[in-house]
């Protein structure tokens, strides 16, 4: 089984110095998405799934077009929920993230005031990843080790989502406990491609990482994080 985890392109988080909720892509973000789609256009996937958020859907659009597929939204791929900052000064968000990054490590689990906690987000993504695996014939066979029984180990599935979603799912499937700085643990540029591939064990399959945050489809000046 191969999972191809794609991060969305650069979003327009700020417009006229004000925060934008559920932002669209910037002009560069659309360019990044087209480059990613061109790089993956020759590959075959059993499914291509996308987060319900606008920045992910706009990133996935040229990939769906290149592959001749219809959009398939999968709700569990949604990024951590931010506070309701829409229309407020962008400096408000900057100060909130600055405060979050300055906290002692354990206190980062609570996340941003008014948003989804990092602990709740990690739990949600773990439940979502397990549900995704179950829907695709994957059953965890060991309570301690990340070993899976796969009904169809030849599946190839692409998912267009977010840095947080992808990094939490990546860690869970590899058997790495989540931390409240998961975004920094796995460095994922916009429209970068991360690949997980299963290998066979004596009692099932396990995931290995064959690529992390590959952004070679972008020129150096077009790479953003």
Describe, in plain words, how this protein is organized in 3D:
It is a single chain. The protein is of the alpha/beta class. It has one domain: Rossmann fold (3-Layer(aba) Sandwich). The protein contains six helices and nine strands. It has helices spanning about 25-40, 55-65, 90-100, 120-135, 165-175, 180-185; strands spanning about 1-5, 15, 20, 45-50, 140, 150, 155-160, 195-200, 205-215. The protein has a five-stranded mixed beta sheet with strand order 4-7-1-8-9. Strand 8 and strand 9 (about 205-215) form a beta hairpin. Helix 1 (about 25-40) runs parallel beside helix 2 (about 55-65) and helix 4 crosses helix 5. The longest helix has 18 residues, at about 120-135. The radius of gyration is 18 Å and the shape is globular.
Tell me the number of structural domains. 1
Q: What share of the residues lie within helices?
A: 25-40%
**How are the strands of the biggest sheet laid out side by side?**
4-7-1-8-9
Order of helices and strands: EEEHEHHHEEEHHEE
User: Got a strand count?
Assistant: 9
**Unreliable spans:** none
Q: Any idea of the CATH class? A: Alpha Beta
Radius of gyration, in angstroms, nearest whole number: 18 Å
CATH architecture: 3-Layer(aba) Sandwich
- Subunit arrangement of the protein: single chain
The name of the CATH topology is: Rossmann fold
Query: SS-based structural class?
Result: alpha/beta
Question: Alpha-carbon distance between the termini?
Answer: 28 Å
What's the shape? Answer: globular
Beta-strand percent range: 15-25%
């Amino acid at each position: 089984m191969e999972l191809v985890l794609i991060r969305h392109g650069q979003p327009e988080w700020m417009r006229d110095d004000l925060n934008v909720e559920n932002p669209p892509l910037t002009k560069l973000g659309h360019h990044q998405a087209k480059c990613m789609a061109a790089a993956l256009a020759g590959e075959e996937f059993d499914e291509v799934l996308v987060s319900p958020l606008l920045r992910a859907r706009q990133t996935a659009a040229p990939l769906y077009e290149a592959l001749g597929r219809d959009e398939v939204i999968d709700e569990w791929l949604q990024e951590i929920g931010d506070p309701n900052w829409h229309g407020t000064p962008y400096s408000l968000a900057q100060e909130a993230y600055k405060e979050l990054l300055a906290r002692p490590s354990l206190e980062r689990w609570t996340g941003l005031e008014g948003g989804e906690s990092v602990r709740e987000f990690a739990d949600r993504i773990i439940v979502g990843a397990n549900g995704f695996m179950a829907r695709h014939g994957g059953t965890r066979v060991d309570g301690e080790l990340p070993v899976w029984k796969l009904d169809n180990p030849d599946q190839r599935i692409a998912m267009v989502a977010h840095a947080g979603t992808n990094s939490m799912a990546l860690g869970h499937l590899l058997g790495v406990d989540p931390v409240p700085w998961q975004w920094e643990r796995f460095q994922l540029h916009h429209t970068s491609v991360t690949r997980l591939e299963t290998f066979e064990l004596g009692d099932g399959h396990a995931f290995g990482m064959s690529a992390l945050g590959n952004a070679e489809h972008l020129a150096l000046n077009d790479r953003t994080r």
